[in-house]
Amino acid sequence: MLKGIRQRAIGSYVFLFSVFMVLTFLRSLGVVDLLTVLLGSFWATVVMAWLTNRRLISPVEQITSVAQEMAGGFLDAEIRVKGEEELDDLAWSINYMARELRKNLTVITEERNRARAILNSMADGVIALDKDGRVILVNPVVESIFNVKEEEWIGNQLIKVIRNHELEQLFIRALNSMQPVLNNELQVLTPEPRLFRVEISPLKGNQEEKMGVVGLLTDVTERRKLERMRSEFVANVSHELRTPLTSINGFVETLLDGAVEDPATAKNFLSIINAEGKRLANLIDDLLKLSRLEDRRSKLNKQPVDLTEVIDNTVKMFAPRAWEKNIELTGELPQEMPPVPGDQGFLSQVMINLVDNAIKYTLPGGKVKIKVNFSRDEVTVSVADTGIGIPPESLPRVFERFYRVDKARSREMGGTGLGLSISKHIVEAHGGKIWATSDEAGSIFSFSLPLQE
Ligand SMILES: Nc1ncnc2c1ncn2[C@@H]1O[C@H](COP(=O)(O)OP(=O)(O)OP(=O)(O)O)[C@@H](O)[C@H]1O
Ligand SMILES: [Mg+2]
């Protein structure tokens, strides 16, 4: 391309030389004087310099300055020159290159934004390291897990940012081996203890060359908690089922071994077997109730419920037992009460569980009192007793499944430790709250229900 320019430059030198030669020749013939030769040569040089500047130097300067702007990232700049044909071609090529770059840059930016959006909306944490172990990418989940901003991560060694030796070792192992590394239960302490499943995969280039590693951090704290609860639940259920069964088997074997011959012993054993059988059936009933409530399979059949009626019925139901145990069972109910939106059957179950406990855990001569209070938004029912009370450390646990303050004693009374947990489920399914307080004077179990749906 530059051939033409070079030829033109040589041409101009030849032209200047020719002008000089012609003038010198004319001078030797005496046609012109020395001043004319000098002036002629001078003007010829000036004209040539002007032409070179206009057609060559100034367009090149312009091209250089726009190219510098482009290099600085301003790809919208465009070269507009009029000069030598070759320079026009050069300008056109640079403009074309800038246009192509602009197009590619748009595609790359869009792709980067898409990848960012995916990373930002992920529920799992992502950390990518380059082959030297420096952080090249983290997503917002990772920032919040470790409470460290992205700027502090990028370009730094992992350990400098998070100080979790175990996690760092996993990344180092993956980087060194370039093989996937998995840890199902990594504990992260900052800012609060949580369990993560960490899966690190190698990043390889097109030629299988080592580029780094990328780690995925999945929070499994809740899942592990549920798994633990489930296995505890299975262990508890098996235990609770086995206890009455062992007792039934024991008495049946004794009967078979000859006790059946003695009618008094046989009757005693059979009544124990009967009671244990009933307990087993109750337990299975309770378990089914609980599982249906948890499954939300048994939908609440909500209707306006007259709570006074529910409480009256419960008092009537427990009156004989209270009388037998010499316990004063009373209800302090308002004259008028708005209906509560709820499931009558389930709400009766809550009342039965609370009054049953109050009588069960109160010694003869004690008192059990049911009270109702209501405001514009909610109604609160409380069952207070003068019973044995609940130690403060047990109070937060009494609503857990199978939790009993005194296991042996409660089991002796036929309790399975499911009553309060069922009640809690029912009250919460109604959008309400249930709680307990207790001291030496006795315990108060209360629940509140919203009056509006
Ligand atoms: N009014 C109360 N006074 C003292 N302790 C209580 C009272 N109510 C509950 N508790 C304690 O809370 C525990 C759990 O109560 P919950 O009603 O869930 O089970 P339970 O009464 O043992 O068995 P059941 O499943 O038959 O109701 C009881 O074992 C008892 O230790
Ligand atoms: Mg109970």
TrEMBL record:
Keywords: Kinase, Membrane, Phosphoprotein, Transferase, Transmembrane, Transmembrane helix, Two-component regulatory system. PROSITE patterns: HAMP (PS50885), HIS_KIN (PS50109), PAC (PS50113), PAS (PS50112). SUPFAM superfamilies: ATPase domain of HSP90 chaperone/DNA topoisomerase II/histidine kinase, HAMP domain-like, Homodimeric domain of signal transducing histidine kinase, PYP-like sensor domain (PAS domain). CDD domains: HAMP, HATPase, HisKA, PAS. The chain crosses the membrane at residues 12-29. It catalyses: ATP + protein L-histidine = ADP + protein N-phospho-L-histidine. GO terms for cellular component: plasma membrane. Coiled coil: none annotated. Residues 111-185 form the PAS domain. It comes from the Bacteria. Pfam families: HAMP, HATPase_c, HisKA, PAS. Residues 54-106 form the HAMP domain. Its EC number is 2.7.13.3. This is histidine kinase. It comes from Desulforamulus hydrothermalis Lam5 = DSM 18033.
